[in-house]
Structure formats: C-alpha cells, structure tokens
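SUBJECT: A protein chain and its fold
Encoding: whole-number codes for local backbone shapes
Chain under study, with its fold:
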Amino acid sequence: MKRKLAFIFLLFIIGAIGYLGFSIYDQLQEKQVVKERIAQVPEFTAIGLDGRVIQSNNFVRKAPFILTYFNTGCEFCRAEIRSIKSHRSLQERAMIYLISDEPARVLKQFRNKLELDSLQKIKVLQDSTAEVKELFGVKGVPNTFVYNREGKLLKNFQGETKAEILYKLVKK
C-alpha cells in the first residue's frame, strides 16, 4: 500500500514538473513571437481623445517616438509621465504616445489633471479594443517602447523609466 502511494505521489510530482516545464517553454515562445512582431512598429490603430482614429504608420518617419502603455491609477505610470512632461529636450526630439485601454472619459480627466493637453508632442490615445496591449504583449504597466524614425525598436522598458534614459536613446 505504501509503495502504491509513493508511486502515485511520484507520478504526481513528475506530472507537475512536466506541466511547469511546458508552461515555461510556452511563455518563452510567446515572448519570442512578440519580440519579433514589435522589432519594427506593427500596424495598429488607436483613438485620439478627440475621437479621431490614429494609425501606427503615421508615427513612422516623422521623428523617433515613444509609446508608453499606462494606467491612470498606476503611481509608477504617473511618475514616468511627469518625468517625460518635464523633460523639454525629449519632447523636442521625439513624439510621445501615451496609450491606455481605459475609457476616454477617464483618460481626458487624466490628461487635464496632468496638464498634457497643451503639449504638442505628447498625445494620449485610447486602446479601446486592447489591440495594442495584445500586439505588444503588455503584461504590466508602465511598458515603454522606444522606436527610431524608421520604426525600428530601440528598446523596451518594463516598469518606470526616467525621461533622461529615454532621451539618451532618441538623441542618437
């Protein structure tokens, strides 16, 4: 009886290890697929707070650009956005797109509270269908993607990133 229980326990452990191994492998594969998909800016649409549909191909060739996926309730997101807002040299060098899947009403309040509406180079966009979130493999916020003017990904930051670091990438 003890042998039988030990054998069942051993099978359970082997099964659990196999499942975890497969899960890790699957996650690594998914990360690789996302990495390849975003190496060049993928095609997507977002909605400006004025209701206009914005195409990602409009971002390319104008200037380097920064795409930050955020949430209005995230303190780390707010800190990153404040840092970007106060860094004038970064705004002169790059377009900054702040994207969230929250309702437009919430995003407008956020934009007004942080006084972003008067800044030409910072645009708040809505990802109403979570297309951007899925396409870029966003799992947490803030998640920042820095692209050059040709649409090539320079760097992907997960977590709060200071504007000085972003500026060093886009000034090259």
User: Anything to note?
Assistant: The helical segments are 2-37, 75-86, 88-93, 104-113, 131-135, 163-170. The mean pLDDT is 90. The CA atoms of residues 28 and 51 lie 37 Å apart. The chain has two domains: 1-37, 45-170.
